[in-house]
Amino acid sequence: MTQHSPVQTPGQILAIDGGGTRCRLALERGTEVIRVETGPANVSSNFNLTVAQIHLGLAQLSAKSGLSPKALAATPAYLGLAGMVSPEIAERLSKALPLRRTRIEDDRPAALRGALGAADGAIAHCGTGSFLASQINLQQRIIGGWGPQLGDEASAQWLGRLALARTLDVVDGLADPSPLSAVILARLLSSAQIVAFAASASPMEIGGFAREVTEHAARGDELAIDLMRRGADYIAENLSKIGWAPGTRLCLTGGLAPQYSRYLPLPLQQDLCQPKSDPLTGALALARDFATQCAT
Asked: Per residue in 245-283, pLDDT tens?
């Protein structure tokens, strides 16, 4: 985390929520919230692209709000970004941006704050990446989110990668063919093409196959259903390890997580609640906290 605190600009805050699929920025002025959206922003996967997407978003915010770049740069800003795994990366990013008062963290606290507000509960967040988080008696616990090489279980890229791997099992005669494996083979043409694609594709591109998995599972495809159950099992087995218990609020956040709901054990299904808001709203709340600290 990095913080820089010159003279306060009262009455406005800036929030940035960046992930493997998109980067969203919001400028709050009183009751007005101006939002823009740009492309992928995972600071570990592609640092330079993340910087470029944030610069683009700031330019769009400046144009949309009528606020000069200089005034925008002086606004207290909270950044919650995927791939923010060390203070060194945060400091490097801070130096690459024009923002002068920043708090930079990973994207998980903003998602947790957005989904739960101040309430007790837990979230399973599955987008391009994934993590689990809880907020119990004012104590937060967050696990996962370590990226496609070392984790992100139940995420879209994880699900897409498993679908590719199981399709190779079909090619080898180790698994029965299914409509899902047929679609993947028709798209990528051969086992060699599957291997080449997996070696060069981005997490977002691999995660694109998660849609095929969820759609085929809904149609009764046994291969797809097995993959969905694997993701749901990961969620169910690990929520209890971060303090979730039956009777506690549980939110499924991110583009993929709600698709796991029907595959979860009944006690988890019974406690499912809609998130109170989205990660960008959570980032705005954390930006307000940061602005208050700057003012004291």
From this structure: 899 999 999 889 999 999 999 989 999 999 999 999 999
Over range 116-132, report the average pLDDT. Answer: 91
Single-letter amino acid code for the residue at 13:
I
Quote the pLDDT of residue 238.
Answer: 94
Q: What domains sit in the chain, N to C, each tagged with a CATH number?
A: 12-112+278-295 (3.30.420.40), 121-274 (3.30.420.40)
**At residue 16, what is the residue type?**
I
Residue of 128, 78, 119 lying closest to 289 (CA atoms) = 78
Say if strands 121-126 and 32-38 run parallel, antiparallel, or are unpaired: unpaired
Which residues, other chains included, contact 57 with Cβ-Cβ below 8 Å and sequence gap of 6+? 16, 23, 24, 25, 36, 37, 38
Alpha helices for 66-178 (secondary structure H): 69-73, 87-96, 108-116, 156-171
pTM of this structure: 0.80
State the Cα–Cα distance between residues 125 and 112, nearest whole angstrom: 9
**Nearest-angstrom CA–CA distance, 292 and 287:** 9
The secondary structure of 41-94 as a DSSP string is -BTTT-HHHHHHHHHHHHHHHHHHHT--HHHHHTS-EEEEEBT--SHHHHHHHH
Contact assessment for residue 83 and residue 42, using Cβ atoms and an 8 Å cutoff: yes
Segment (H or E) for 97: none
